């Protein structure tokens, strides 16, 4: 079973993040990922990038489900007011 901190570390190692939050119960996780690497990419392309970083963990069954919100730093700043 994975812990949120492990998922967060894997994402951070593969994507340069300005902000990253991961929560979960060991099977299902939720993530907020803010990265300048998402600039110019649509939602699907952003999620594909994150899934690519986590692919081996999904394939092994170690990681079951991840719902994610992906934003550029500008989008994140705008949603925070």
TrEMBL record:
It holds the Pfam family BolA. InterPro entries: BolA, BolA-like_sf, BolA/IbaG_stress_morph_reg. Gene3D superfamilies: BolA-like (3.30.300.90). PANTHER family: BOLA TRANSCRIPTION REGULATOR, BOLA-LIKE PROTEIN 1. Belongs to the BolA/IbaG family. This is Transcriptional regulator BolA. It comes from Candidatus Accumulibacter appositus.
